[in-house]
Amino acid sequence: MTRHLATAFTTHGVGQGLFYSGVIAPEEATRPLNFVYDCGVNYDVPVRPFLHQRVDSYRSQTLGVQRGTRTELDLLFVSHLHGDHASGLRRLLRDVSTKYVFLPYLSQVDRTIAALASPEAEEWYFDFLSDPVLYLKNELDVGKIVLMLRGGPPENDVRIEDRPRDPSEALDAAVRGLRDAESPDRLLGSEPNRSEWNRLRGNRDLLFKTDTRALNLPQWMFRFYSVQSNPDALRSFHVELQRLTAKLSLRDLLTVGKNRTLLRETYERLANADDVLKGEVNNTSLVTFHGPTKGATGAQQFGFDGGAVCCFGPHATTHPPRMWPFGTLLTGDINLRQDSIVDTLRDHFIHERTEVGTLFVPHHGSIDSWDATTLDDYPNAVQAIVSAGVDSYYRHPSPTVIRDLCGARRTLHWANQFCQVTQSMALELP
Fold first, then answer.
1. What three-state secondary structure class fits 145?
2. Other CB atoms within 10 A of residue 34 CB
3. Which end of the chain is more exposed for a tag (fewer CB within 10 A), N or C?
4. What are the structural domains, with CATH classification, of the chain?
């Protein structure tokens, strides 16, 4: 039996940050599945109104949020907690019934460094960083929180269901199918609110999972790779943070301005003496592949919404289906220059590497996170997307990154505060 599937994906034009959303709508489904990957903007760059406009538009047009009405977001994936990826979460999730939030487990040290990277953020953001689990649960009323950890080799476990089901209805079973982490107690022991975390864990509202299995939904799947920070590189800052938290709670350190100043001075003193520590700031991300189950045929197309179109390289926006697979690899802020990350990334997505037709350029196109040899690992990724701000002082995307992509005959689409990138598909699956 042939099944028909329509999808729509948008890299929203927020500027120096990332806000990506998707709608997966099987023909026989009574309700489409809605998901979001990251929602934030860099507060040091004056583009915050663009994020607010895009979030409000998404809430209204896709989620149908109305005053006094609660709607549903099935999946939220947060690659990491830096402000340019997470600062819009509160605005996005208010009055929204969110079923699942996936994010990598980030230690107190990771969360503290994230706070120092966004000094101009709103006050709620620092409260969120002090305990993201309790903030998501108590303040934003999220249904279930899934903390992702690095596991073993990926399992080739993608399945095709015999009977049609709504992806949203199959979500609970798909999450249960992920492999449980073996030793979350060690992580819980370091959390100041571990009794509350344990209560949520007992209620199955807090789950610890590994990235070895795919999240299998009818006709669509997600596979994760949880890139963890290097604890050895962060050890010097960890020691100082332990000294400070012996006197003050992490919440007091992060939410009181003078305490954040003390933290920043401590971090900068250590980072100035240790280039390894300085280089660890952007190394955590929940890399996510999503795409249809194998055997899909059909057509897809890119488009632009806004007053400016930023497209580099071959300008064809449609390709024969066999030359342009339907999968997308969302990379967050991974550092492809980090030792072995290119190899481990390729090995982890070994079953999907030829299914990647669209590749997100990591870290907004920063040259400091780029390795052009990655393109050899995804030979069918003829489309690339970068989300970065026009006229930001970071100067993303790097001209070198653009040249590498164009030289490899890839088309690069640039989502910025003046232009968002859309991608639509009309598919048939066996």
1. strand
2. 24
3. N
4. 3-229+280-429 (3.60.15.10), 235-278 (no CATH)
